[in-house]
Amino acid sequence: MDPMRQRPRRNRRTPVLRRFLSETSLCASRLIYPLFIHGGSKDEPIASMPGCSRLSPQGLLREVEGALGDGIQSIVLFPAVEEALKTSGAEECHNPSGLIPRTLETLKARWPELNLITDVALDPYSSDGHDGLVDENGRILNDETVEVLCRQAVCQADAGADVISPSDMMDGRIGAIRDALDDAGHQDVAILAYTAKYASAFYGPFRDALDSAPRGGDKKTYQMDPANRREARREALLDESEGADMMMVKPAGPYLDVLRELRDSTDLPLAAYQVSGEYAMLKAASERGWLDERSVVLESLLGIRRAGADAILTYYARAAARWLAE
Ligand code: PBG
Questions:
Q1: What is the tens place of the pLDDT at every residue in 139-152?
Q2: Which listed residue (86, 197, 219, 283) is catalytic?
Q3: Which CATH number belongs to the domain containing residue 93 in this structure?
């Protein structure tokens, strides 16, 4: 056959043809906006995440109002907890009058349609900076931790969370949290499992934001080894069998093969988290004029969608929604 009979460029000739044949789309309704909150009266900019702040209660209302105006309908909340409230048992995580429950109640009352997602893990509340309870030898206690996570999840659901998102990577927590939610009458509250969450250095800026870095050791006995892909499938099978409604891969950009692997092996909806370090990289290069921010951000998000994500958590959610609407 004449090689020139096949001309893929014919399908790229005009903007109309290119849009007509585009295989992947990006829209604001698929973006989830992570927000940092604290109890103080002023917003505090986060140095390693330009454009993001620890928001005061007032600042949060302003930010959510703006995000809704830009077309963002889902947010996930992360609390910066004052040092005096951090304990080895992380009890503050299930205090019904703590920062997260109070904030959920306020937001639900004001915007009932807003999709409220909460993070389940102990690290913001732990004086050890770990997602689980730590014993005297520095070991992370799995089953004891799961009990505390269940109380945290129920506390968040009681306060109005729509989706509970365990990011702790303890074994068996999805099933245990599902049972605890059901026993508390929260059959309709969904679970978005952090299924393949890697022990990644890309979480650095997030830990600055919450002052939540581990005070001893690292997270490698519970978060996954970045070298592993098959293991993600194993985690996915478990989370699905335990009752996860949606699953997540995190970080996103460096783990697109994992996302595709899960897309091909489960029918559950998938989310991916473009984490703080990915945001910081894009931001830093853009600020220096080395990359065109709008183009690289939208391309990075499109790549995550193409790899198989239905929804994307990104600190660029608001900006991306605005760019998409232009
Ligand atoms: C904590 C948690 C982390 C992130 C989300 N939930 C940090 C960690 O596991 O150390 C990271 C998010 C980001 O870097 O943007 N359970």
A1: 999 999 999 999 99
A2: 197
A3: 3.20.20.70
